[in-house]
Write a structure and sequence with these properties.
The complex is a heterodimer of chains A (101) and B (354).
Chain A lengths: L1 H27 L19 H12 L1 H29 L12
Chain B lengths: L4 E4 L4 E4 H18 L4 H10 L4 H25 L5 H28 L3 H26 L1 H4 L7 H12 L1 H8 L5 E4 L4 E5 H18 L4 H12 L3 H25 L5 H24 L2 H28 L2 H40 L1
Antiparallel strand pairs in B: 1-2, 3-4
Helix pairs in contact in B: 1-2, 1-3, 1-12, 1-14, 2-3, 2-14, 3-11, 3-12, 4-9, 4-11, 5-13, 8-10, 9-10, 10-11, 12-14, 13-14
The chains are: A mainly alpha (101), B mainly alpha (354).
Chain lengths: 101, 354
Amino acid sequence: MAINKIITLLIFCFVISLSYNNLYASSETGGKEQTALNLKIETKDLTGVNLWIAELYNNDRVLYAIVVTLVMATLGSIMAFGTDLVLRYFGMNVSKISHRE
Amino acid sequence: MDIFNIYLPVAGIEFNVLLLLLIGFCVGVLAGFFGVGGGWIVTPALNIFGFPMAFAIGTDLSNIFGQSIGAVKKHHKMGNIDWKLGLISIVASVVGLEIGSQLVMALEKAGDIGSIVRGCYLFLMFGLGVFMFYDYFKLNPKKIKPSENKPDEEISKTNKTKKKSIAQKLHKINLPPMISFPVSGVESVSLWIVLFVFLFTGFLSGFLGVGGGFIRMPALVYLIGVPTVIGIGTDLMSVLFAGAYGCFTYALKGRVEFLAAFILLIGSSIGVQIGATAVKYIKGYGIRLLFAIMIICAGISIALEQVFKATNISHYELSSKLVLMGTAVMMTVIIITNLITESRKEKKRKVETE
């Protein structure tokens, strides 16, 4: 229940930041001057994953931000689950604890 | 070691994978154990090894977000999160943060505020560290009772009574509306006091430009009176929100090195689970002692950085960074050693009772 609440709040935060940042992006990239928002990566010598990241970065910054955020969240969850299993395998108690001061 | 170097396309630099994993692992252990984001370790560490500062901050925030998910999940599972208190802390901290950042803007117009902010930072770190040391030595069970046969519960009760003295005084202030936090064992406290505490910690985060984990965690323990482990879990929940926003907004501005953040997160996700598990095996006062040592070492590092800025002697800058990295590695080793020792003891105890 609490997890659901926090996920809803996270989505809400993203929507707010997305609207704000889009507003900021459109006002900043209108001119020709290179800013943080319209910087481009040189893709000439890149291949594989590096090329994919660079193209994502160059072509759609909003999508880049969404992909980074989602990948971080997914990887964080998967790693947490995996490490939990390994710790349990080694006999560590990973369940609810009784608090000791 | 060059074979482990990879090219990071967004930042446009080469970086050692093993180093990224090590930095991630150390900060993960500390984050899971102390309930902090660890930005004050990762950002300078990445910067020392060649990351441009803006990329170091953005990449660090992405890592904080990813590792916090695992840590929050873990602490939630262990019953260490007071969601009600956490949500109040987020709302009040955001308002406080805005007030703090507005004050910085106002002071900036008036002149150089760098020295004021750094002075406050140092005062806060050393003050908090010394207070926690004092608290530890005052409440250390070995000092309270020389007899080894006294039951653990009794020690805990004695400690609890003394530890919560500031919190208990605050709980006595009858200023409606009163609110309770059953998960934290807080029966009744004025909502205004809770809001004021988080407004103040948020203000400090905004004023000092830090995530605020190292301020909020002690505030939860000493001012609101929550048990140490719940303070850690609840604080991590606020860190998760800050990290999510930071990750997205920095990525949008093109200041997150995706590949580095990914590798960093592999190391920190493993570390954070180990750190959070260690909380189960180490008593609250032990955690607070380690926390005190860590923030005093971080304070020394900042002081050395200030000496470098005043004298321009590069040795001070190097020493500052070494102290910071050394502290992180040393703390990681201590936490893991304690985890292994205590879990072995517990296993032995279980076997003996069976």
